[in-house]
Design the sequence.
């Protein structure tokens, strides 16, 4: 695999909400926090190999490793260190960091403040075309996992594997069950909004599952050229580039030889995010190596079928039933008439147990705990009860804030 550069360089981006310590209402102060560290208004602060940066909304701030790292497990402690440092600055403003992929009661139509500095031209253009006041724009926090490649062939194999795995990622990563003060009925409400918030130009998101393209030339022809053509009437000044517009669940970044997975809800602490990333990469490495099925079979997986499974896991999480035998066969489970997404993940984690054990940092134990107790959304629902009021929401989400500060899993 090393010749194609697969699984040798990794990047992770974690987005967190800034909320008032007393009420947990959103606190649009990301610019003040970055200014406090940099000494002036800035979009980004470099901290060694790590960095903090702004996002579209002023109450969201991102922590990332600015330089690729050769192994994921080491990032758990580095991210937790950055969380502590960022929390200390936020505390000066009467704020704390809050995890999960959506604020449970924020009103995006009245509380959204967009980033007003630096690259605001891009954000203003997005806002003019799509109206970024809704949940799918200003109330979404995710984990982005960047995986490197070195050759066109490596890109093709990695893209084929990611397309196949994307449909079941919400089953382990969903963390957004509550919006507007109520349980929504979706385990992954963020992705429910994500796949619909740019319907004015459907090609931007597509079916979330990327098209079956396996070279840079194919990607340019089938995806980027279409995006440029479709956005042109709405963006006559050419502010929005195709590479920024592309909102599929995994996007190719040929400028840095990486594929960025974007369907992961952020978890309750960096250990949980990194543990899931290690599991995901272990399965992807098995897929690219032909462990369960041949490369030609992965590349033949139909987008419509993958999108149907994705839709089921967005709603049902780990309890979604997969009865697509052709899909299960891609993981050498073709003899199963049906199984839940959670059962499939349990079996894949068992297959990858040696890799998880070698990871250290409590990765294997964390993965086993999350698979046993369900995705964070399931644990949050269990804690909230059937019809939570605002006070119960505040109690549970405050506990999630403690989990982030203390670097521990949320268990109910």
Sequence:
């Amino acid at each position: 695999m090393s010749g194609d550069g697969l699984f040798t360089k990794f990047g992770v981006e974690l987005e967190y909400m800034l909320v008032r310590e007393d009420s947990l209402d959103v606190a649009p102060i990301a610019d003040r926090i970055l200014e406090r560290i940099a000494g002036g208004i800035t979009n980004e602060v470099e901290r060694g190999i790590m960095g903090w940066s702004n996002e579209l909304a002023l109450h969201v701030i991102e922590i990332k490793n600015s330089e690729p790292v050769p192994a994921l497990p080491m990032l758990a402690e580095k991210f937790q260190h950055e969380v502590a440092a960022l929390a200390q600055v936020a505390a000066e403003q009467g704020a704390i960091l809050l995890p999960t992929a959506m604020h449970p009661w924020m009103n995006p139509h009245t509380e959204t403040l967009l980033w007003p500095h630096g690259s605001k031209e891009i954000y203003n253009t997005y806002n003019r075309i799509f109206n970024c006041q809704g949940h799918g724009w200003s109330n979404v926090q995710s984990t982005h996992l960047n995986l490197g490649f070195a050759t066109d062939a490596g890109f093709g194999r990695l893209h084929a594997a990611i397309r196949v795995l994307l449909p079941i990622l919400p089953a382990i990563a969903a963390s957004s069950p509550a919006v507007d003060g109520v349980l929504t009925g979706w385990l992954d409400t963020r992705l429910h909004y994500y796949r619909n918030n740019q319907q004015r130009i459907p090609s931007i998101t597509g079916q979330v599952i990327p098209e079956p393209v396996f070279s840079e030339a194919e990607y340019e022809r089938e995806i980027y050229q279409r995006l440029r053509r479709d956005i042109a009437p709405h963006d006559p000044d050419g502010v929005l580039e195709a590479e920024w517009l592309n909102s599929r669940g995994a996007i190719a970044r040929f400028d840095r030889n990486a594929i960025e997975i974007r369907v992961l809800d952020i978890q309750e602490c960096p250990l949980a995010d990194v543990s899931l990333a290690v599991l995901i990469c272990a399965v992807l490495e098995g897929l690219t190596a032909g462990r369960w099925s041949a490369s030609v079979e992965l590349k033949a997986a139909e987008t419509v079928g993958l999108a149907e499974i994705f839709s089921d896991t967005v709603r049902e999480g780990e309890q979604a039933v997969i009865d697509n035998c052709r899909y299960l066969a891609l993981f050498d489970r073709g003899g199963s008439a049906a199984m839940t997404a959670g059962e499939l993940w349990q079996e894949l984690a068992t297959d990858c147990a040696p890799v998880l054990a070698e990871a250290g940092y409590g990765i294997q134990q964390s993965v086993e705990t999350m698979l046993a107790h369900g995705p964070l959304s399931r644990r949050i629902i269990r804690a909230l009860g059937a019809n939570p009021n605002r006070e119960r929401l505040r109690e549970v989400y405050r506990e999630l804030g403690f989990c982030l500060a203390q670097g521990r899993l949320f268990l109910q």
